[in-house]
Amino acid sequence: MITLNTYFKFSVTQGCGICPSNSKSADCVNCKERYCNEERLVPNHCWINDKEICKTEYDTPCFTERTLSNQIDKGCGKCSSTYTCKECQENRCNSEKEFPYFCKSDDGDKECPEPDCFISKDNNQNSFVYNCGKCPQSSSDLPSNGIQCAKCKNSPFCNTPKFFEEQLFCWESSNTDKMGMVKGSRVCESKCFVSRDSINGQLKFGCGECDDPKLDCKTCTEKYCNEERLVPKHCWINDKEICKTDFDIHCHMERISINETKKGCGNCETKACRKCLSHLCNDWKDTPYYCYSNQGTDGVSECSDPDCYILKLKNKKDNKNEYYQNCGKCPKTRSSLIGTLDELLGERLKENYNDDFQCADCNNGILCNTEKFIEEKLFCLERSLNDSMVVKGLVYAKSNVLYQEII
User: Any idea which fold 232-287 has?
Assistant: First the structure.
């Protein structure tokens, strides 16, 4: 006879005789061979929890496993998981009061005393570091700038690159640049924010909600969503006043007369305009003048002086008038016009050159060198370069007196 594992004494009793017929608290087996009453004849017990057991064959192990939810599962039989489970062969051997947690580490899978795991990423080298434990409490405790950290404790080996990439990181304010931002070092719970001070225009980036009603502030819920473009930017109206506009709308400076400019938000009313897209960008110290120009952007050029000119040329191929506009004054002679340093004009003159061209200049208004302007001017007949014929004058008459001039 062998009696095994009473519920109260957890002991094995072996001896002569037969099993008691009225025993309900013990597993008992009879045998008739010499020394046959070995322990392997009766089932093993394994713990299911602190109070319950299961029974299994003597050669079948007990197991303890850390589950996907980081709980502990115990029972009879072999482990279903290779890494987070341990087996033992003794009776009620899976009685551990403390069972390890599991994290990924730089050296492979690792047993840990606490459930916390972390993964950090060095954006400068695009590499990961894994281990047991928590992220540093302060960003200043991280080894260097550009390192981000995420922690988890909800399952074994939770600190994976996939987990890291799914976390919410926000832009945070730079410690070195009042208007700058850097990638946040820590995971944000649910929201990112960006704000701009309504007085000084300073930007602030970070995790969480908008908490100051005096600020222009927006929140968002996507990774690195809290960009400057979410809040209005400022443009100068004058040296002391600003206007606010959407981030993608221009600031501008427009010349509205020879002696006056206007600044503000949005587009200019005319082409005599300089525009920019960044915060408070329209604070240029140089204030240009503007002329229509064949070389300029959108047909207009910035000029250092108010003088503009327009040249009227006769196309030799089809005998039609063409116009050339730019900053500056008309040449005093035809010879100086032919030797111009203006490459584009030089090419035009080579293609279209004959003695039939006129020039008019102005400096009394913005974008004054229009086709209408030259067509309204009075031009006189003049002698040609070789004095062999009379041609239309190069420059217009400043008065109504008509005369001939030999150049």
Answer: CD59 (2.10.60)
